[in-house]
């Protein structure tokens, strides 16, 4: 809105200056003013349409959600509530949008539902396995991660406001951190993800270089080595997790409710 207001003021200024000049100059300045006003009107209309489109999109995205207290799935007698589904669905919707897909079409909406449910079921199976293994998160480990999160905020007031804005209590946050700590322990000790080898890194780098468009600068191997290593480690971990979830599914009782 500030940009539109500034444009309108510039138009008025041009018109006022024109009044102080001779007839020829006045005509010229008035034409400039009218053009500026017309452009600002078009810009305002575009912004209003964009805002309307965004609002309509949000309504369609909200319509895909379910009641918070409903049950969307049961995994080995453990219920997955609508509130969990809705939170995961919002993340899925954002991911699909970032990939350039319209999450509101019938086909994509179904993909979103299936993708979100499968993700929640897989997550539940893994956490059930982690519980069976007996992994625990110490207060020290939880507080360490909590301090890292708090450090991202200017002060305690800003941190508490962020919690309030996300409808999350401190205890709920600490519970999520505890799950993250236990998950990390499980990945490290049970999945035993193979270490990324130097030859794998170079092969990955070569494939990346080959996809760089002509004329674009190619980064040096040493400059991106650590980043590529993290990416490959994540890929290997995801592959292991995927295989583990499929293994757990074989003996699991899973009932989808939506």
UniProtKB/TrEMBL annotation:
<dbReference type="InterPro" id="IPR027304">
    <property type="entry name" value="Trigger_fact/SurA_dom_sf"/>
</dbReference>
<keyword id="KW-0732">Signal</keyword>
<dbReference type="InterPro" id="IPR050245">
    <property type="entry name" value="PrsA_foldase"/>
</dbReference>
<keyword id="KW-0413">Isomerase</keyword>
<dbReference type="Pfam" id="PF13624">
    <property type="entry name" value="SurA_N_3"/>
</dbReference>
<feature type="signal peptide">
    <location>
        <begin position="1"/>
        <end position="18"/>
    </location>
</feature>
<keyword id="KW-0697">Rotamase</keyword>
<feature type="compositionally biased region" description="Basic and acidic residues">
    <location>
        <begin position="26"/>
        <end position="47"/>
    </location>
</feature>
<feature type="region of interest" description="Disordered">
    <location>
        <begin position="23"/>
        <end position="56"/>
    </location>
</feature>
<protein>
    <recommendedName>
        <fullName>peptidylprolyl isomerase</fullName>
        <ecNumber>5.2.1.8</ecNumber>
    </recommendedName>
</protein>
């Amino acid at each position: 809105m500030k940009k539109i207001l500034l444009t309108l003021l510039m138009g008025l200024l041009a018109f006022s200056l024109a009044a102080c000049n001779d007839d020829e100059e006045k005509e010229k300045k008035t034409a400039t003013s009218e053009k500026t006003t017309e452009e600002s009107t078009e810009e305002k209309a575009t912004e209003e349409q964009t805002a309307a489109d965004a609002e309509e999109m949000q309504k369609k995205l909200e319509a895909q959600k379910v009641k918070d207290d409903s049950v969307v799935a049961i995994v080995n007698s453990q219920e997955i509530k609508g509130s969990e589904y809705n939170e995961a669905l919002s993340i899925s919707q954002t991911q699909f949008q970032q990939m350039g897909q319209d999450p509101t079409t019938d086909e994509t909406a179904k993909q979103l539902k299936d993708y979100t449910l499968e993700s929640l079921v897989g997550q539940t199976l893994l956490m059930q396995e982690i519980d069976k293994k007996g992994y625990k998160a110490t207060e020290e480990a939880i507080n360490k991660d909590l301090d890292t999160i708090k450090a991202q905020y200017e002060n305690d007031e800003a941190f508490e406001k962020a919690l309030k804005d996300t409808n999350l209590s401190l205890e709920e946050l600490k519970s999520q951190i505890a799950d993250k700590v236990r998950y990390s322990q499980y990945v490290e000790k049970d999945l035993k993800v193979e270490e990324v080898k130097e030859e794998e890194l170079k092969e990955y780098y070569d494939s990346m270089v080959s996809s760089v468009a002509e004329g674009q600068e190619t980064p040096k191997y040493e400059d991106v080595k650590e980043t590529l290593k993290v990416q490959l480690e994540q890929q290997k971990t995801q592959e292991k997790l995927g295989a583990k979830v499929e293994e757990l599914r074989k003996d699991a009782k899973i009932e989808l409710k939506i």
